[in-house]
Amino acid sequence: MEYLKSLLHTKGHLIIVKNKVEAGIVPCENIQKALEYFTEENSYQLDRIYPAEDPSIIDISNGQEHIQLRQSTNGPFANLESIIDGKFDGIYIETIDLNPPIKVPDANSYFEINKMTNDSSWVVGRVGLEYRNLLHHQNDRFGASHIRINEGGVTSDYVHYHQLRFQMIYCYKGWAKMVYENQGEPFIMNEGDCILQAPEIRHRVLACKKGLEVIEINSPGKHMTARDHELILPTGKLIPDRLFGGQKYVHYKGNTGHDDFGFLDATNGMMSANTIHPQSDVIIKNECPFLFHFILTGTCELTYDGIQPLSAGDCYVIPNSGEFNLAHCSADLKVLEVREENKLSPNPSFEREENERGEL
Length: 360
Description:
The protein is mainly beta. It has helices at 2-9, 31-41, 80-84, 263-266, and strands spanning 20-28, 45-50, 57-62, 65-71, 92-97, 112-114, 123-124, 130-133, 143-149, 153-154, 160-163, 166-173, 176-180, 187-189, 194-196, 203-208, 212-219, 224-227, 243-244, 247-248, 250-252, 271-276, 282-285, 290-297, 299-303, 307-311, 315-318, 323-327, 334-340. The protein contains 4 helices and 29 strands.
Protein backbone atom coordinates (compact mmCIF):
# COMPACT_ATOMS: atom_id res chain seq x y z
CA MET A 1 0.00 0.00 0.00
CA GLU A 2 3.03 2.32 0.35
CA TYR A 3 3.19 2.97 -3.41
CA LEU A 4 -0.47 3.98 -3.50
CA LYS A 5 0.10 6.23 -0.50
CA SER A 6 3.01 7.96 -2.20
CA LEU A 7 1.02 8.43 -5.39
CA LEU A 8 -1.92 9.90 -3.48
CA HIS A 9 0.46 12.19 -1.62
CA THR A 10 2.08 13.44 -4.84
CA LYS A 11 -0.56 16.20 -5.00
CA GLY A 12 -0.65 16.54 -1.23
CA HIS A 13 -3.89 14.53 -0.99
CA LEU A 14 -5.44 17.29 1.08
CA ILE A 15 -8.88 18.85 0.85
CA ILE A 16 -8.22 21.41 -1.87
CA VAL A 17 -11.62 23.08 -1.52
CA LYS A 18 -14.37 22.22 0.90
CA ASN A 19 -15.67 18.68 0.28
CA LYS A 20 -13.20 17.98 -2.57
CA VAL A 21 -10.28 15.57 -2.32
CA GLU A 22 -7.75 13.82 -4.52
CA ALA A 23 -8.66 10.15 -4.82
CA GLY A 24 -7.21 7.05 -6.41
CA ILE A 25 -9.65 5.71 -9.02
CA VAL A 26 -9.90 1.91 -9.06
CA PRO A 27 -11.87 0.29 -11.91
CA CYS A 28 -13.49 -2.95 -10.68
CA GLU A 29 -14.93 -5.93 -12.44
CA ASN A 30 -16.78 -6.86 -9.21
CA ILE A 31 -17.23 -3.75 -7.09
CA GLN A 32 -18.75 -5.58 -4.10
CA LYS A 33 -15.77 -7.94 -3.80
CA ALA A 34 -13.39 -5.00 -4.09
CA LEU A 35 -15.29 -3.20 -1.31
CA GLU A 36 -15.03 -6.25 0.96
CA TYR A 37 -11.32 -6.56 0.20
CA PHE A 38 -10.50 -2.97 1.17
CA THR A 39 -12.86 -2.62 4.14
CA GLU A 40 -12.72 -6.09 5.72
CA GLU A 41 -9.06 -6.88 5.11
CA ASN A 42 -7.27 -3.55 4.79
CA SER A 43 -8.80 -1.07 7.28
CA TYR A 44 -10.65 1.17 4.84
CA GLN A 45 -14.09 2.53 5.74
CA LEU A 46 -17.12 2.92 3.50
CA ASP A 47 -18.02 6.59 2.95
CA ARG A 48 -20.51 6.78 0.07
CA ILE A 49 -22.28 4.48 -2.34
CA TYR A 50 -24.05 5.28 -5.64
CA PRO A 51 -26.71 4.19 -6.29
CA ALA A 52 -27.72 2.15 -3.23
CA GLU A 53 -29.82 -0.36 -5.18
CA ASP A 54 -27.09 -1.42 -7.66
CA PRO A 55 -23.79 0.30 -6.81
CA SER A 56 -21.53 1.51 -9.60
CA ILE A 57 -19.46 3.99 -7.52
CA ILE A 58 -18.22 3.48 -3.97
CA ASP A 59 -16.02 5.92 -2.02
CA ILE A 60 -13.79 4.50 0.72
CA SER A 61 -11.10 6.07 2.86
CA ASN A 62 -8.39 5.38 5.40
CA GLY A 63 -7.57 8.60 7.22
CA GLN A 64 -6.67 11.11 4.51
CA GLU A 65 -6.37 8.46 1.83
CA HIS A 66 -9.38 8.29 -0.46
CA ILE A 67 -10.17 5.66 -3.08
CA GLN A 68 -13.13 5.60 -5.44
CA LEU A 69 -14.16 2.15 -6.67
CA ARG A 70 -15.90 2.18 -10.05
CA GLN A 71 -17.78 -0.72 -11.58
CA SER A 72 -16.47 -1.30 -15.09
CA THR A 73 -16.98 -3.84 -17.84
CA ASN A 74 -14.07 -2.78 -20.03
CA GLY A 75 -11.08 -2.50 -17.72
CA PRO A 76 -8.15 -2.40 -17.42
CA PHE A 77 -8.77 -3.73 -13.93
CA ALA A 78 -6.43 -3.11 -11.05
CA ASN A 79 -5.00 -6.12 -9.23
CA LEU A 80 -6.12 -5.41 -5.68
CA GLU A 81 -3.53 -7.68 -4.10
CA SER A 82 -0.82 -5.93 -6.13
CA ILE A 83 -2.03 -2.57 -4.83
CA ILE A 84 -1.60 -3.80 -1.29
CA ASP A 85 1.84 -5.12 -2.24
CA GLY A 86 2.81 -1.68 -3.56
CA LYS A 87 2.40 -2.26 -7.30
CA PHE A 88 0.30 0.31 -9.14
CA ASP A 89 -1.42 -0.52 -12.42
CA GLY A 90 -4.80 0.67 -13.72
CA ILE A 91 -5.18 3.46 -11.16
CA TYR A 92 -5.09 7.22 -11.71
CA ILE A 93 -5.75 10.27 -9.56
CA GLU A 94 -8.87 12.42 -9.86
CA THR A 95 -10.47 15.20 -7.84
CA ILE A 96 -13.80 14.02 -6.46
CA ASP A 97 -16.56 16.01 -4.77
CA LEU A 98 -17.73 14.42 -1.52
CA ASN A 99 -20.87 16.56 -1.50
CA PRO A 100 -21.78 17.16 -5.15
CA PRO A 101 -24.68 19.35 -6.31
CA ILE A 102 -27.98 17.54 -6.63
CA LYS A 103 -28.93 17.31 -10.30
CA VAL A 104 -32.65 16.88 -10.91
CA PRO A 105 -33.79 16.18 -14.51
CA ASP A 106 -36.66 18.24 -15.92
CA ALA A 107 -40.21 17.06 -15.33
CA ASN A 108 -41.05 14.73 -18.21
CA SER A 109 -42.98 11.65 -17.09
CA TYR A 110 -44.19 8.88 -19.39
CA PHE A 111 -46.84 6.21 -19.05
CA GLU A 112 -45.32 3.10 -17.52
CA ILE A 113 -46.72 -0.01 -15.90
CA ASN A 114 -44.78 -2.54 -13.86
CA LYS A 115 -46.36 -5.82 -12.78
CA MET A 116 -45.31 -8.01 -9.88
CA THR A 117 -44.64 -11.55 -11.12
CA ASN A 118 -42.64 -14.57 -10.07
CA ASP A 119 -40.10 -13.52 -12.70
CA SER A 120 -39.68 -9.96 -11.38
CA SER A 121 -36.02 -9.00 -11.18
CA TRP A 122 -34.49 -8.33 -7.75
CA VAL A 123 -30.92 -7.08 -7.25
CA VAL A 124 -28.87 -7.03 -4.04
CA GLY A 125 -27.84 -3.53 -2.97
CA ARG A 126 -26.61 -1.80 0.18
CA VAL A 127 -26.30 -3.98 3.35
CA GLY A 128 -27.94 -6.94 1.61
CA LEU A 129 -31.24 -5.24 0.79
CA GLU A 130 -33.03 -6.66 -2.25
CA TYR A 131 -34.37 -4.09 -4.71
CA ARG A 132 -37.03 -4.38 -7.39
CA ASN A 133 -36.89 -1.36 -9.67
CA LEU A 134 -40.38 0.01 -10.31
CA LEU A 135 -39.51 2.72 -12.85
CA HIS A 136 -37.67 1.75 -16.02
CA HIS A 137 -38.78 4.36 -18.57
CA GLN A 138 -38.67 7.67 -16.69
CA ASN A 139 -35.83 10.20 -16.90
CA ASP A 140 -34.49 9.73 -13.35
CA ARG A 141 -36.30 12.77 -11.99
CA PHE A 142 -37.90 10.12 -9.79
CA GLY A 143 -36.97 6.63 -8.77
CA ALA A 144 -39.15 4.00 -7.11
CA SER A 145 -38.10 0.71 -5.53
CA HIS A 146 -39.83 -2.23 -3.91
CA ILE A 147 -37.35 -3.31 -1.21
CA ARG A 148 -37.37 -6.48 0.85
CA ILE A 149 -35.29 -8.09 3.59
CA ASN A 150 -35.56 -11.86 3.74
CA GLU A 151 -33.79 -12.22 7.08
CA GLY A 152 -35.29 -10.81 10.27
CA GLY A 153 -33.72 -9.58 13.48
CA VAL A 154 -30.90 -7.08 14.00
CA THR A 155 -29.71 -5.56 10.72
CA SER A 156 -26.20 -4.67 9.51
CA ASP A 157 -27.30 -1.12 8.71
CA TYR A 158 -25.29 1.92 9.86
CA VAL A 159 -25.96 5.63 10.39
CA HIS A 160 -26.35 7.12 6.93
CA TYR A 161 -28.10 9.80 4.90
CA HIS A 162 -29.12 10.50 1.31
CA GLN A 163 -28.11 13.39 -0.93
CA LEU A 164 -31.41 14.17 -2.66
CA ARG A 165 -34.43 16.50 -2.62
CA PHE A 166 -37.19 14.00 -1.70
CA GLN A 167 -37.46 10.53 -0.19
CA MET A 168 -40.29 8.60 1.40
CA ILE A 169 -40.49 5.06 2.79
CA TYR A 170 -43.85 3.25 2.96
CA CYS A 171 -43.99 0.08 5.08
CA TYR A 172 -45.78 -2.40 2.84
CA LYS A 173 -45.39 -5.59 4.87
CA GLY A 174 -43.94 -6.35 8.29
CA TRP A 175 -42.23 -3.87 10.59
CA ALA A 176 -38.85 -2.19 11.12
CA LYS A 177 -37.21 -0.63 14.16
CA MET A 178 -35.93 2.82 13.10
CA VAL A 179 -34.07 5.75 14.60
CA TYR A 180 -33.75 9.28 13.18
CA GLU A 181 -31.61 12.28 13.96
CA ASN A 182 -33.17 14.55 16.61
CA GLN A 183 -36.48 12.66 16.47
CA GLY A 184 -36.32 10.95 19.83
CA GLU A 185 -35.82 7.31 20.74
CA PRO A 186 -35.97 4.34 18.34
CA PHE A 187 -39.49 3.31 17.31
CA ILE A 188 -41.33 0.68 15.30
CA MET A 189 -42.48 1.56 11.78
CA ASN A 190 -45.48 -0.70 11.29
CA GLU A 191 -47.26 -1.92 8.19
CA GLY A 192 -49.16 1.02 6.70
CA ASP A 193 -46.82 3.64 8.19
CA CYS A 194 -44.92 6.05 5.97
CA ILE A 195 -41.90 8.24 6.69
CA LEU A 196 -40.80 11.40 4.93
CA GLN A 197 -37.02 11.22 5.16
CA ALA A 198 -36.10 14.89 4.82
CA PRO A 199 -32.90 15.57 2.81
CA GLU A 200 -29.74 14.38 4.57
CA ILE A 201 -31.41 13.49 7.87
CA ARG A 202 -29.27 10.84 9.53
CA HIS A 203 -31.05 7.56 10.22
CA ARG A 204 -30.60 3.84 10.68
CA VAL A 205 -32.63 0.65 10.45
CA LEU A 206 -31.91 -1.23 13.69
CA ALA A 207 -33.98 -4.39 13.27
CA CYS A 208 -36.87 -5.75 11.24
CA LYS A 209 -39.36 -8.55 10.90
CA LYS A 210 -38.39 -11.36 8.55
CA GLY A 211 -39.92 -10.61 5.15
CA LEU A 212 -40.08 -6.83 5.63
CA GLU A 213 -41.13 -5.03 2.43
CA VAL A 214 -41.13 -1.27 1.85
CA ILE A 215 -41.85 1.04 -1.08
CA GLU A 216 -39.28 3.82 -1.52
CA ILE A 217 -39.78 6.89 -3.73
CA ASN A 218 -36.82 9.22 -4.40
CA SER A 219 -36.00 12.36 -6.33
CA PRO A 220 -33.68 12.30 -8.11
CA GLY A 221 -33.87 8.63 -8.92
CA LYS A 222 -30.10 8.15 -8.72
CA HIS A 223 -28.38 9.72 -5.71
CA MET A 224 -25.54 9.26 -3.27
CA THR A 225 -26.00 7.44 0.04
CA ALA A 226 -23.34 8.50 2.55
CA ARG A 227 -22.24 6.98 5.85
CA ASP A 228 -21.88 9.17 8.94
CA HIS A 229 -19.02 7.75 11.01
CA GLU A 230 -19.34 10.28 13.84
CA LEU A 231 -22.99 10.79 14.75
CA ILE A 232 -24.46 8.35 17.26
CA LEU A 233 -28.19 7.67 17.15
CA PRO A 234 -30.34 8.35 19.04
CA THR A 235 -28.95 11.84 19.71
CA GLY A 236 -30.94 12.25 22.93
CA LYS A 237 -32.78 15.21 21.43
CA LEU A 238 -36.33 15.64 20.19
CA ILE A 239 -36.62 18.58 17.78
CA PRO A 240 -39.74 17.87 15.68
CA ASP A 241 -39.67 21.25 13.92
CA ARG A 242 -36.06 21.02 12.80
CA LEU A 243 -35.57 21.53 9.06
CA PHE A 244 -33.37 19.29 6.95
CA GLY A 245 -32.77 20.75 3.50
CA GLY A 246 -35.76 23.02 4.12
CA GLN A 247 -38.08 20.09 4.91
CA LYS A 248 -39.48 18.49 8.06
CA TYR A 249 -39.30 14.85 9.03
CA VAL A 250 -42.76 13.21 9.11
CA HIS A 251 -43.85 9.85 10.52
CA TYR A 252 -47.35 9.03 9.28
CA LYS A 253 -49.00 6.23 11.23
CA GLY A 254 -51.34 4.02 9.24
CA ASN A 255 -53.74 3.47 12.12
CA THR A 256 -54.64 7.16 12.48
CA GLY A 257 -57.87 6.91 10.47
CA HIS A 258 -56.95 9.41 7.77
CA ASP A 259 -55.29 8.76 4.42
CA ASP A 260 -53.20 11.90 3.83
CA PHE A 261 -49.59 11.53 4.97
CA GLY A 262 -49.01 15.25 5.64
CA PHE A 263 -46.11 15.64 3.21
CA LEU A 264 -47.42 18.69 1.33
CA ASP A 265 -46.69 21.18 4.10
CA ALA A 266 -43.52 19.38 5.21
CA THR A 267 -42.02 19.67 1.68
CA ASN A 268 -43.19 23.27 1.15
CA GLY A 269 -45.79 22.23 -1.39
CA MET A 270 -43.49 20.07 -3.51
CA MET A 271 -44.81 16.56 -2.85
CA SER A 272 -47.90 14.83 -1.50
CA ALA A 273 -48.67 11.22 -0.68
CA ASN A 274 -51.73 9.34 0.53
CA THR A 275 -53.72 6.16 0.11
CA ILE A 276 -56.91 6.01 -1.95
CA HIS A 277 -59.72 3.43 -1.91
CA PRO A 278 -61.61 3.48 -5.24
CA GLN A 279 -64.86 1.53 -4.82
CA SER A 280 -66.45 2.15 -8.21
CA ASP A 281 -65.45 3.16 -11.71
CA VAL A 282 -63.26 6.25 -11.40
CA ILE A 283 -62.08 8.56 -14.18
CA ILE A 284 -59.09 10.67 -13.17
CA LYS A 285 -57.18 13.34 -15.06
CA ASN A 286 -53.64 13.84 -13.86
CA GLU A 287 -52.77 17.53 -13.45
CA CYS A 288 -49.41 16.89 -11.73
CA PRO A 289 -45.91 16.62 -13.23
CA PHE A 290 -45.56 13.14 -11.70
CA LEU A 291 -48.25 10.70 -10.55
CA PHE A 292 -47.35 7.25 -9.21
CA HIS A 293 -49.77 4.54 -8.05
CA PHE A 294 -48.84 1.27 -6.31
CA ILE A 295 -51.53 -1.37 -5.67
CA LEU A 296 -51.26 -2.33 -2.01
CA THR A 297 -54.25 -4.68 -1.80
CA GLY A 298 -57.11 -5.73 -4.04
CA THR A 299 -57.60 -5.70 -7.78
CA CYS A 300 -58.83 -3.33 -10.48
CA GLU A 301 -58.64 -2.64 -14.18
CA LEU A 302 -56.66 0.31 -15.53
CA THR A 303 -57.68 1.87 -18.82
CA TYR A 304 -54.97 4.02 -20.36
CA ASP A 305 -53.30 3.13 -23.64
CA GLY A 306 -55.24 -0.13 -23.49
CA ILE A 307 -56.78 -2.16 -20.67
CA GLN A 308 -54.57 -3.60 -17.95
CA PRO A 309 -55.74 -5.84 -15.07
CA LEU A 310 -53.92 -4.92 -11.86
CA SER A 311 -53.36 -6.64 -8.52
CA ALA A 312 -51.22 -6.22 -5.39
CA GLY A 313 -47.61 -5.33 -6.18
CA ASP A 314 -48.39 -3.72 -9.55
CA CYS A 315 -47.72 -0.04 -10.15
CA TYR A 316 -47.91 2.59 -12.87
CA VAL A 317 -47.09 6.21 -13.77
CA ILE A 318 -49.58 8.46 -15.55
CA PRO A 319 -48.06 11.42 -17.49
CA ASN A 320 -49.15 15.00 -16.97
CA SER A 321 -52.58 15.75 -18.49
CA GLY A 322 -53.22 12.04 -18.94
CA GLU A 323 -56.76 10.81 -18.27
CA PHE A 324 -57.25 7.26 -17.00
CA ASN A 325 -59.98 5.03 -15.65
CA LEU A 326 -60.00 2.54 -12.77
CA ALA A 327 -62.80 0.01 -13.14
CA HIS A 328 -63.93 -3.31 -11.64
CA CYS A 329 -62.44 -2.25 -8.30
CA SER A 330 -62.52 -4.92 -5.59
CA ALA A 331 -63.90 -4.02 -2.18
CA ASP A 332 -60.44 -4.23 -0.61
CA LEU A 333 -58.67 -2.09 -3.23
CA LYS A 334 -56.08 0.17 -1.60
CA VAL A 335 -53.65 2.26 -3.64
CA LEU A 336 -50.56 4.19 -2.58
CA GLU A 337 -50.54 7.51 -4.44
CA VAL A 338 -47.49 9.82 -4.72
CA ARG A 339 -47.67 13.15 -6.53
CA GLU A 340 -45.27 15.90 -7.44
CA GLU A 341 -47.36 19.01 -7.15
CA ASN A 342 -47.26 21.94 -9.56
CA LYS A 343 -45.76 24.16 -6.87
CA LEU A 344 -42.14 23.07 -6.97
CA SER A 345 -39.59 23.92 -4.27
CA PRO A 346 -36.14 25.16 -5.32
CA ASN A 347 -33.45 22.61 -6.12
CA PRO A 348 -31.57 22.06 -2.84
CA SER A 349 -28.25 22.17 -4.71
CA PHE A 350 -28.72 25.93 -4.97
CA GLU A 351 -29.55 26.68 -1.35
CA ARG A 352 -27.68 24.48 1.09
CA GLU A 353 -27.77 26.24 4.41
CA GLU A 354 -25.26 25.37 7.09
CA ASN A 355 -26.85 23.10 9.67
CA GLU A 356 -26.00 22.46 13.29
CA ARG A 357 -23.47 19.80 12.28
CA GLY A 358 -21.41 22.62 10.72
CA GLU A 359 -21.79 21.21 7.20
CA LEU A 360 -22.97 22.76 3.98
